[in-house]
Amino acid sequence: MGRTFDGIEPELAAWIEAQRIFFVATAPLAADGLVNCSPKGMDSFRILGPREVAYLDLTGSGVETIAHLRENGRIAVMFCAFAGPPRIVRLQGTGVAIPIGDPQFDEAASLFPATPGARAVIRIRLSRIADSCGYSIPRYDYVDERDALVRWAESKGEQGVADYRAAHNVRSLDGLPGIDAPR
To answer: Tens digit of pLDDT for each residue in 110-120?
Structure first.
């Protein structure tokens, strides 16, 4: 049923690019730490090479993914087909967050449409690429992208979003460092 791949080949790349949602999972090293799984959407995922991908991370209420990557780098990205033939694809590897303000951010962010509220680009080197059946995943019809996050960021303005990150994204729920507070 499931296969592993040496890299993201063209057929797999086309399938990934057709998906409208993906999920990102990370965990801290502490045994009692909180595992995080976050849904992602919009035009925020890019395949950079056969074993490297990136996504645009948007300002949110938490900063778990960035904090976990800073601590240990482990990350998994999952896509599943909600339309067409059933399929699940998992991309596992190690990632690094390139936050806004980092000298590499502008170049990394240029891969994506300009999006108000962008706070980092997550780059991932893949150690495992695998698919599985997805037979139990329900079918859903895509309606449209939500614009609530973009409207929120636009209403706050660049400084307001930066202030929000400084208030809510400096530490993870487990107290790990997230986004560095502005100096």
So the answer is: 999 999 999 99
Of 15, 11, 38, 17, nearest to 27 (Cα)? 38
Asked whether residue 175 is domain-assigned, the answer is: no
| Domain-located, residue 162 | yes
Q: Which domain holds residue 45?
A: 3-168
Per-position b or e across 10-36, b if 16+ CB within 10 A of its CB? eebeebbeebeebebbbbbeeeebeeb
CB atoms within 10 A of CB 120: 28
pLDDT tens digits, 55-102: 999 999 999 999 999 999 999 999 999 999 999 999 999 999 999 999
